[in-house]
Amino acid sequence: MKIKGIVAAPGLAVGPVFELSAPPVHVLHETVAAAAVDDERARAREAMARYYETLRLCEPMTEIERALLNATMELLNDPYLEDAIVSRIRDLHYCAEWAIEAAIEAMAREIQALDDPYLSARSVDFEDLAHGILMHLNGADQSSFELSEPSIIVAEMLNTSSLVMIDTSQVLGFISEKGGISSHAAILAQTLGIPYLIGVPYPHEFIHTGECIVLDADAGEVDVQPTVEEIAAARRNIATKRAKEAQWDAQRDEQALSLDGRRIAVEANIGGLDDLEFAKERGAEGVGLFRTEFFFMAQEDYPDEETQFALYRAAVQEMGGPLVVRTLDVGADKALPYDPLEAEENPALGRRGIRFSLDVTGPFRSQLRALLRAAALGDVKILLPMVSALEELERVQQMIAAEKDALRSAGTAVGDVEVGVMIETPAAVFLADALAEHCDFFSIGTNDLTQYIIAADRTNAKVQHLFHSFHPAVLRAIDAVIQSAHHCGIPCAMCGALAADPLATRLLIGMGLDAFSVPGAQIPRIKDVIRQCDVREEQAFAREVLAKSRLDEGLDLIREHEGRWT
Ligand code: PEP
Ligand code: MG
User: Fold this and answer.
1) 308 ligand 1 Cβ < 6 A
2) Which residues, at least 6 apart from 204, have a Cβ–Cβ distance to it below 8 Å?
């Protein structure tokens, strides 16, 4: 039986299921006798302590995981939370499960109403937190996450706190019912090259731990009860794919030249130094997007200039090629534990990205200074997220100029940095000609650009069927942005997920994209597709696709040519 899902990270996998959180966490809505209250309190406290201990023993593999881990541990340590749970058991005689669920739900609601900035920053983690404590109440511990063999993880929701407890080197694939294609879990899967399908209705009756399933995250489906023949066919496909990957890998360290000799840069998206090492192994020619927020999120306070300088210095020295560092991009679903966000009705439309940095200018200036100093040691470029006005770019440039002067006057070595704008809001698309005149490069963030152009939340599984970066409106916006950049003589890169989709490569080259920045795992593949492109042919192809006004018409055209790459 095949079940459709939405691709969060491509790839194929065959193997046994590992049901995360199996059996599912059941919350009993029962009260306990007065005599049992003390025991119940002890159960709740012990579950919190065991969960904390499980997390403490985790060894995060990436900066993203480290940040998630720290945020959850901080919540578990919060006396307010413990009190909210314990008082429900003591005063209302709720059983521990109910008290935990009710306390955390109430806390999330109260936080919105109280408008308490300290707590509101943590509200995004609450669902995850309740899940983690309840699992530990039901007897889960680190061993619940230990995979005895390479497996496909199946979960209702790929909770980030569960994710960090899994040894990802044993994971063949991920499947979840809830979640979005640009959630942290999806970014992690893309970075590590693990296939991940979301929006798959949890087929409890068909999927059981240990049973073999076939996950085809290229085609967007999972076969939950495959026949012996289907399993054999899937294994053959994987073997063929591995052989192809070996071919791509053989050339991963070579530059990517199109058939007619155009050099197209293929760089990496990283969240920290661990990712950088992996990306270099996969043939990255530089870093096209360093998401610095994960480093900030893993700290206990704003990292000072020296701490940041050490990080950027290590990155530029390790990379040896261009290092495009995006300034702090918090807001919406990403919060700093030490400088929480005020509650907002629509956080994705709120104080995020450059808006936040221009508000909290002290830490922003430290980041700019650290970057200017690192630029004295190599090719460092600054990339600004969520720009929606020319004035924002101008303000940042004034700040950069002032910090540069100050550092120079103090006798500190600084380098020249190019400043680029992320194109991820409709405002930036319509202002691209003006922005291009005032900056050094563009990088298109298709994750946010798609969300804002289509008005479809990138983290909401219910609207993922609408969230499509091949939507004609998104493609036309991308084309217009590239043309504006070239009109002003600046290069245009792309660092959103579309850049890593091999189906889009030909089209983007036809539109004139200069550089692709993709998760490390995808680098050899994208280079391989570029090598099969002929720029002039792709230009004609891109015009054909751009003339289509329906998603399916454009996709049909694109798929017609897919044979060239498979
Ligand atoms: C994007 O929006 O496409 C992007 C690359 O930034 P992030 O996914 O980190 O928001
Ligand atoms: Mg973005």
Assistant:
1) no
2) 24
Provide the 10 A C-beta neighbour count for residue 368.
25
Closest ligand 1 atom to Cα of 293: 9
CA–CA separation, 538 vs 54, rounded Å?
52
CB of 182 sitting under 6 A from ligand 1: yes
CA 447–ligand 2 middle distance (angstroms): 6
- 496 Cβ below 6 A of ligand 1: yes
Take residue 431 and report the two structure tokens written for it.
């202002």
Distance of CA 240 from the midpoint of ligand 2 (Å): 35
How far is the C-alpha of 344 from the C-alpha of 339, rounded, in Å?
A: 15
- Work out the number of other CB atoms within 10 angstroms of the CB of residue 440: 15
Q: pLDDT per position in the chain (566 positions), as tens?
A: 889 888 888 899 999 999 886 445 667 788 999 999 999 999 999 999 988 887 777 766 666 667 777 777 888 888 888 899 999 999 999 999 999 999 988 877 776 566 544 444 444 467 778 878 888 887 766 666 778 899 999 988 776 657 767 888 899 999 988 877 666 678 778 878 899 998 888 767 778 889 999 999 988 899 998 999 999 999 999 999 889 889 999 999 999 999 999 999 999 999 999 889 989 999 999 999 999 998 998 888 999 999 999 999 999 999 988 999 999 999 877 778 788 777 888 889 999 999 999 999 999 999 999 999 999 999 999 999 999 999 999 999 999 999 999 999 999 999 999 999 999 999 999 999 999 999 999 999 999 999 999 999 887 778 878 999 999 999 999 999 999 999 999 999 999 999 999 999 999 999 999 999 999 989 999 999 999 999 999 999 999 999 999 999 999 999 987 754 44
196 — phi, psi (to 5°)?
-145, 125
Give the closest ligand to the alpha carbon of residue 289.
Answer: 1
Q: Is 533 a catalytic residue?
A: no
Enter the tokens of residue 252. Answer: 């991963």
Q: Is the CB of 183 under 6 A from ligand 1?
A: no
Whole-number Å distance, alpha carbon 475 to ligand 1 midpoint, is: 16
Report the atom number in ligand 1 closest to the C-alpha of 269: 5
